[in-house]
Amino acid sequence: MSAPLLRALRVARRYRDVVALAPTDLELNPGETVALVGPNGAGKSTLLAILAGALDPSEGTVETNARVGWVPQRPAHYAKLSPRENLELFAQLEGARDARGRATRMLERFALPTDARPSGELSVGNRQRLNVAIALLGEPRVLLLDEPTAALDPGQRRRVWEVADALRADGGAVCFATQNLEEIEHANRTIVLQDGQVATLTVDEVFG
Amino acid sequence: MSAVLLLLRKDLRVLRRSPLLLGALVAYPIVIALLVGLVAGYASAKPRVAFVDDDNLPQVIAVGGHRFHIQTVIDDVAKQVTLVRLSDAEAARELADGKVVATITVPPGFLGDLETTVVSPHLVLETGTGGLAPRVTQQVQALVYQLNLELQTGYIDANLAFVKLLLNGGRGTFVGKHFDVLGLERTAQELRALPPSKRRDAIANFVRQAREGLAQTGTALRATANPITLQQAKSHGRTWLLSAQVQSYGIAVTVTFLALLLAAGATAAERDEGTIGRLRRGLVSLGQLVWSKVALAAVVGVVLGAAIAVVFGIVVDVGGVTGGEPWSRLPLLLLGVLLAAGAVGAAGTLLGALAREARTASLLAVLLVLPVVFLGLVPRAALPVAYWVSLFLPFAHAVRLFGAALYDTSPWHRVGIEALWLAGIGAVSWTLARLGARTLSA
Question: What is the ipTM metric for this complex?
Answer without folding.
Answer: 0.87
